[in-house]
Amino acid sequence: MVLSHVYLVRHGQAGSRAAYDALSETGRRQAALLGRWFAAEGIRFHRAFTGMLNRQRATADTVQSAYSDACDLTFPEPQPHPAWNEFDLDAVYASLAPVLRERDEAFRLEHDAMLAEIDAAKHQHSASIHRRWTACDVQIVRAWVSGDYPCTGESWLEFQNRVASGRSVWDHCAPDENVVIFTSATPIGIWCALAEGAAGLAQDTSSDRRAMRLAGTLLNASFTTIQSAADVRLLTFNNVPHLENPELRTQR
């Protein structure tokens, strides 16, 4: 039996920290190269979905346009679906940074230094601060995932459950259909962890670490493939054959 193949595409490189929910020029180039590569490989997609975020939808639109220009195959119109949104890092920061600043002097000093660096580089989109995870970023996300501090908005467990509900977009596909989903790093990390047999979506620290570790390695405009049947199987991970230039292999 031929099973459905699901292509999970991470969005292209985003903008600066002040305007992260948009594609940079590099991000648009990465997405266009992916669309042309899909066309050159003759991969036919039967359904396409995208998260609701601007950077996800712009990636989908750019891939669709490049694919359609490069071959005679029809690329399905990407349908927006909120299950595939990334978590809101700005909201997590707004909720947890004041708590960590009050309780951890080292975090407060690191956070002040990070904010100063962001302010100094706000008009320089290629600046390092916009293209790397800082120690503060890591500490904030770990605090959110742990659930040790009260946080307004979506919790880590709620986020995982939302992402898992995204399976509905391919559950009723025919066995031989290809589905492409334009999303972000953490949803892909969660689905890879599930496909590898992580222990459900309970508050299991090994599952949490696996999902975040996988998400942290994903390149912009990479694609990961899973096979869907009664179970989900991870087939390939973090593929970038379309990004032959190492300078285009970015992570943030």
Account of the protein in words:
The protein is α/β, with parallel strands linked by helices and 252 residues long. The chain has two domains: 4-86 and 154-248, Rossmann fold; 89-146, no CATH class. Helix content is 43%, strand content 13%. It contains eight helices and six strands. Strands 3-2-4-1-5-6 form a six-stranded mixed β-sheet. Helix 1 (25-40) packs across helix 2 (54-70), helix 3 packs across helix 4 and helix 3 packs across helix 5. The longest helix has 17 residues, at 54-70. It is globular, with a radius of gyration of 18 Å. Mean pLDDT is 92; it is low at 198-203.
Unreliable residue runs: 198-203
How large is the count of helical segments?
A: 8
Number of separate domains:
2
CATH class of the largest domain: Alpha Beta
The percent range for helix content is: 40-55%
The radius of gyration computed from the alpha-carbon positions, rounded to a whole number of angstroms, is: 18 Å
> How many strand elements?
6
Structural class, please? alpha/beta
What is the helix/strand order? EHEHEHHHHEHHEE
Strand order of the largest sheet: 3-2-4-1-5-6
Strand content: 5-15%
CATH superfamily of the largest domain: Phosphoglycerate mutase-like
